[in-house]
Structures are given as C-alpha cells and as structure tokens.
Amino acid sequence: MKTQRLDKILSHHGYGSRKDAKKLLHKGFVLVNGQICSNADSPINIDTDTVTVDGTLLQLRHHVYLMLNKPSGIVCSTKDGIHKTVIDILPPQYRVSFLGGDVHPVGRLDIDTEGLLLLTTDGEMTHRLTSPKKHISKTYYLKLADNTDEKAQSYYKEQCEKGFAVPHEGNEDGFITQESALEWLNNSGDEALLTIYEGKYHQVKRMMQTLGNEVVYLKRVAVGSLYLDEMLKPGDCRELKPEEFDKLI
Ligand code: URA
User: Fold this and answer.
1) What atom in ligand 1 is closest to the CA of residue 220?
2) Which of 44, 133, 180, 241 lies at a C-alpha separation of 20 to 30 Å from 32?
3) Are residues 88 and 199 in the same domain?
4) Ligand 1 centroid vs 47 CA: distance in angstroms?
5) Residue 125 shares a structural domain with residue 239
6) Do 121 and 239 sit in the same domain of this protein?
7) Per-residue pLDDT tens over the stretch 213-243
8) Residue 148 within a domain
9) CB of 204 closer than 6 angstroms to any ligand 1 atom
10) 239 and 127 in one domain?
11) Cα(197) to centroid of ligand 1, in Å?
12) What's the CA-to-centroid distance between 112 and ligand 1, angstroms?
C-alpha cells in the first residue's frame, strides 16, 4: 500500500511548507474521504483516498506522463528568460507538484521543431528514454529545401544505413552517425521519415546538411513505438493511455 503523510502531500501539491499545511489542517480546510481531517501525520493511500482542500480535489498520483504536440517557437526547458517553455504552455493542473516531483520534458527538441514531446515527473523514465546506451528510436518527418533525384535519394538512404561523419557545429563535436533509417515519402525527394537511435545536438539538421541539403521543417512523430496522436493540435497535450505507457517500458 502506497501511503504518504497528509502534511507532506499538501506541501507537495503547492500548499506551502509542512508548517503551512498544518495550519490548513487545523483550520478544518482539509477533507479526507469527505471527512474533516486535522492530523498532519494521517497516512493517505494515494490509490484509494481522496483529499480536498477548500473544495479542490487533489490529484493524488506519484507520476504523470504526458504527450505534447510541441509547437514551433517554444523551448524545451523548464525555465527560460526569453521564450515560452513547454511547461508554460501546459494546462495549469500539470504545473503543480506531484508526489514524484515536477513535470519536466523528456529530452529536447529545437525551438523550431514540432511534434511528439513526452513530459513526466518520473526521473527514472526520463533517464531510461534519454540514455544514449538504451538506443531508443526517434522518428522524424522532415522537409528538405532541395528536391533530390533517384540517385541522390539512394545515396542519402545508403549513407544513413551505413553511418557517416558529421562535422562539428560551433562548440559541439563532430560525430559518426549510428545506423539510421531514411524512408522517402515522395518522388520529388524532399519529404522523408528519418529514424535515429541517438540524440546529438541538432542531429537531423546536421545529418542532412552534411549530405548537402537543408531541413526546412522538422517534426518528431514517434519515440520508440509510441506515435504522436495526430488529433493533438500543436500546443495540445494529453496523458498517455495505459497501452501507450506500456510501449515505453
Ligand atoms: N534533430 C534536430 O536537428 N533537431 C531536433 O529538434 C531534433 C532532432
């Protein structure tokens, strides 16, 4: 049974320090399963008990797992002095502390990249999905500046399969790409799906630049076998369904 002290739960849900939580309890603002509760150390079963504070029902969960269709112009961090962050655009119920901590993005997409971004409070999950050792696949839809003919299309595909050297960019080291998979989506050869198993800085853009082209639009469509729900408009998010969560573990 997963239990947590009531004052700790209140504090985790944005009701100040545990001392502040105790004051709320003593004032009779807190109901546990519909009954006023003033005991700071009451054990709360987060799976079965309900807690309301001044009429607001708390979402008692250790972790939350979200899929966001990240729009362009938003940065993938928790704080940024200039741009809006992916946290700023979440609905307010996800901008509070959960028992497992605060919601944070799983990895990064560039400011101008759109598409599937997972966000969670679960640090272990984040580590698992972003660790270079785990080789979790990431699939991107990309649009290129220049069309490519059949010969160039085969060349790009072969290079991706074999791996090739990408030069440094600014302070970022160059690297040899691991095997990746490129699937052309049209005959004019300017739209493709690229699946990579690593996540170097500006990886997809730098790969295409090295092959002599330029990415003009980039959207992540999948992480592992979890696909972006195309019903989500840019900026929309929703919690993962159990079967989607299972694809990540
Ligand atoms: N590769 C890029 O170049 N940018 C991203 O945002 C993700 C992958």
Assistant:
1) 7
2) 241
3) no
4) 38
5) yes
6) yes
7) 999 999 999 999 999 999 999 999 999 999 9
8) yes
9) yes
10) yes
11) 12
12) 9
Q: What pLDDT sits at residue 232?
A: 98
Catalytic residues: 110
The answer to whether position 228 is within a domain reads no
Same domain, 120 and 242: yes
The range of the structural domain enclosing residue 34 comes to: 3-57
Closest atom of ligand 1 to 138 CA is: 8
Is the CB of 60 within 6 Å of ligand 1?
no
**% of the chain exceeding 70 in pLDDT:** 100
Number of domains into which the chain is organized? 3
Q: How remote is the CA of residue 207 from the centroid of ligand 1, in Å?
A: 10
Sequential DSSP letters for 164-195: -EE--BTTBPPEEPPP-EEEE-STTS-EEEEE
The residue with greater pLDDT, 3 or 48, is: 48
Alpha helices in the chain (DSSP H): 6-12, 18-26, 123-130, 150-162, 203-210, 242-246
Answer whether 113 contacts ligand 1 (Cβ < 6 A).
yes
Rounded to an integer, what distance in angstroms lies between the CA atom of residue 4 and that of residue 199? 37
Lookup result for tokens 């704080």? 79
Q: How far is Cα 63 from Cα 13, in angstroms, rounded to an integer?
A: 13
Place of tokens 């239990």: 3
Ligand 1 site, residue 218, Cβ cutoff 6 A: yes
